[in-house]
Hints:
Chain A is mostly helical. Chain A contains 37 helices and nine strands. Chain A has a five-stranded mixed beta sheet, sandwiched between helices. The longest helix of chain A is centred in the C-terminal third of the chain and has 35 residues, at 554-588. Mean pLDDT of chain A is 80; it is low at 435-548 and 815-820. Chain B folds into two domains: 2-174, Glutaredoxin (3-Layer(aba) Sandwich), CATH 3.40.30; 187-324, no CATH class.
Amino acid sequence: MANKVLGLTAVDQTSLLRIAILGLISIVAIGSRLYSVIRFESVIHEFDPWFNYRTTRYLVNNGFDKFWNWFDETAWYPLGRVVGGTVYPGIMVTSATIYNALHMLNIPVDVRNVCVFLAPVFSAFTAIATYKLGKEVKNATAGLLAAAFIGVAPGYISRSVAGSYDNEGIAIFLLVFTFFLWLRSVRLGSAMYGALTAVFYFYMVSAWGGYVFIINLIPLHVFALLVMGRYSNRLYVAYSTFYVIGTLASMQIPFVGFQPTFTSEHMAALGTFGLLQLVAFANFVRTLLPDQHFQILLRGAVFSLFVVGVGGLVLLTMTGVIAPWTGRFYSLWDTGYAKIHIPIIASVSEHQPTAWPNFFFDLNMLIWLLPAGIYFSFRELTDNHVFLILYSIFAAYFAGVMVRLILTLTPIVCVMAGISMANIFETFLNVRNLPAVETDASTDTTGSGAAAISVSVAEAKEKKKTVDTQSTSSGLSAHTEAGSGSKKSGKKAKGSNKTASKASGTTGSKDAANEDASTLDAPLTAVTTSAAAAVRKPASKNQPPNPAMPAFSPKRLYALFPKIVVMANFLYFLCMFQWHCSWVTSSAYSSPSVVLASRSPDGSTHIIDDFREAYYWLRKNTKPDAKVLSWWDYGYQLAGMADRVTLVDNNTWNNTHIATVGKILASDENTAYELARRHDVDYVLVVFGGMIGYSGDDINKFLWMIRIAQGVYPDDVKESDFFNSQGQYAIGESASKTMLNSLMHKLCYYRFNEVMGPQAFDRVRKQKLPSSVTLDNFEEAYTTENWMVRIYKVKDLDNLGRSHRAVSVLEGPKTSRTMF
Amino acid sequence: MRILGHALHRILQLSLLLLLLVGHSSSAQSLKQLQTQANKDRDGVARLDPDLFMKHVITEHKDYSVVVQLTALSPVYKCDACKTVDKAFRAVSRGWKKQSSSKDAAQRIVFGTLDMDDGEELFRQMSIEGVPQLVIFPASKGPHAFENPSPRGLTLGAKTSSPEGMASRLGELFGIEIKADVPVNYSKHLMNIATVAAGLYAVFLVYKYVDLRSLGRNIWAICTILFVLLMTSGFMWNRINEPPYVGQTRSGDPVLFAPTNSQQYGIETQIVAATYAVCALCIVALVRHVPRIQNSDQRTFVTFMFTVALILTFSYLNSVFRMKMPGYPFKLLLP
């Protein structure tokens, strides 16, 4: 073969290119998630990750058995928490495994670093999984584009930057990879891939509650295929294997337990499993009956079974045999539900519906490539495309209802965008042989829609399994890969032009080695047609390229011009997309929120580290079993960084307990003191942003505390009491009496005017400060540098049994101490 | 609630004053008078005037409870919340009327309404600053007496302003089950039935006259794409938050786009969905339509046309986004 480069055949070259491109995509994916580490340090972010980090540390230090049986008495005091049974252990086990493996290789690395960099590393895996998925549904070009998209799409980066050590970090990889395995197992009818799907499904169950999405989408896919009359033995093998193994495996996670057998979320999967058995049986009956009779029988049976199934499901749910939908899940369907019934869910900002700028912010141009991708999927409509379409519909709906679910939408958007872009590239990057376009078009029209083609594809698949149905020319892939890969270098497709000229023939899952060597010399033109055409007319492959066309004739340039314009346009769009993604990641998604940064007028950055200062103070200056009361947002951080007992934390399972804390903070000082003593509280921690203008502080969250408290104690806490006579939620002098007397208000503004002066303003709310705040039952223990965190000690009972108020009246006003 | 608390205080004061002045009429008589007034009303809500209110609601010794709605329904006051609450209140009252067939039950709770028009003076005396309000004057003697018979307000939130919510909250307060009688919206049901019927008929027509095999997939494709377009352009946000369809400037000119990126107007969704659709259409046309054109000049022209359309649409989307998100650094043609 004359066209060898570096001693590699064309097929090898394309594989090498692909691997190189995937490697680059991985590097970009990891790199763009490191902003926060570079700007701040390698630190765990936000709230939930601190719990995951703490449990991971426990797992690494104490081993798996102890972890599994861990009862954490420091959380939810005095209730405690069974950690092993109430946690998705996937992410902790993953990090612990990596940690142990690294240590086995004598690479001394800290647990924290493993945790911090886990999500970026998994994002690289996600890119590879997306490549596999894209290749499975279309071709390598689409796969690479999809991988490049998901590597940098802000919708996914928002949950997977370094330090954001949360379930989603690994779950998206598992989601995509499970779907890839599922599609492959359906295409091949392979029990092995079905079992692999189940294994990764199990991993997903262990990692994230979002597994429910998989266990509903896959059955839905099966159901849709059945309704479309696309039952096949492949489907039967794939789903039966997956469902049985997957369900049994998922029940091994204590947190999931027997849910798959009785909750509504899992019933669709069970129902579909039953239905599939019936259909399989029907197919057996088909061999014994005349065709027409059978069709009628089948349709009637499917319809009536569906009705009976849904009816039975509703009935069982209503009679309470099957547990009703859980609140969080229910709020997805009835969108007004959470607002009215579950303030604790409605209070979380990421559970709000999504306005369109969010979509554009997180997905940019991919969002309008999605509909195009759906269209192309409908043109082809193999079993795989049915899945993609269903996935798009449901993910789009869920993302519309809840902001955070843009996360599950992102993979499918990337795949669909990859398909759209690959179509554009294939049409307009085909510069080798210009008449090709006409040939291409004519075969396309004679195919007249995907119906004919996909039917023959199905036949071809049945008959000749070695032919890859998804085939396209690897030469084209090489072109486009080079196009996407050389975005940065700007060296456009020069080298790959050569590669492409030699490379062709089918690629994909089947071994390229099986290919006849002669096909490698085939021109690009014929290969761009579908597999069906290739199967039908193998002779067309061997036509030589048109030799009459010199490389740079004016005519050729003229013919090339529109293509160049289109490609330049799309390359610019792609560059813009990359800029957009980097900008969004850098400006919106790279703040750890534990450490803050502010920029002074001269441009220098000032790091605000009050949270860790306060937690460190608690860790060093209080008894190890001191109970710290704070709003639930800070529970995990307190446990993780201060290592002290908390009353409530971010695992918001006990509404009453949270409401009690809300009530303490909303009550007047004496009531609060009473309640705090009854709950053994030693310290109260509040977050206050009035000094430096940090708007996410407790005063701004206070209304939610009141609302949640009111839900449980409607007689003691009333939201309307906290509004002043003008109906405003104010602080300071203009606040309502109840607000002024509330513990939260007092703790935040105690002694604040001593530093700010009498005329000063709260910098968040831009309102005048209260003139004097007295505090009798609590004493200030510590206030951080920027006053962001204030810690108060709950005073002991007076030795003489007097009230603290009486004591302070007796002793007179204390001379004010200076803070610093 | 401070306002209400204050108002209640005034009410108590007034009632004491009144007791001194009028002495006290018998409890049974009071009830009778209220019920006569209530029976005049279709929903069983007694329309109170200051006289009735003073004599029969704010009496100390009564063996029945009165739930009073303080409201201002006259269109002059433009009180939309009053109308909502009034509707719910009437539904609850109707429900109670139906439910309390026995004499004993009917004597237990009386529903009354006091309108701004009838008792402006009284409102001022009680220094009521906001309507609507719901105040309960509990029974102080008899079998259903409250432990603490001082009047109390009922917070009117989103939940308690609905008939069901108000009924359940009142039921909790009285320790009995109260069911609201929500009128069946027949016209809406009829509309729904008609729509479904028309839909079914349309499906039947399509099934009969249109060759589904050639069209089926396209219909599905169009439906799917429309659905996805709606969902990704903030349709659900509109459903849940119910924003105005278009905004307005001070001078009354319409504004299409809300100025912040966390808000949107109804029309925004449609504009954005349309831009997405145009962009997607350009892609599809470039891939599917362009290669089929035989004439190369024509093909070049069409290619340019779609490319320009795509660039313009995308830059429009970009400029809208820039407007909503100040500080967004990238732009494409349009500012």
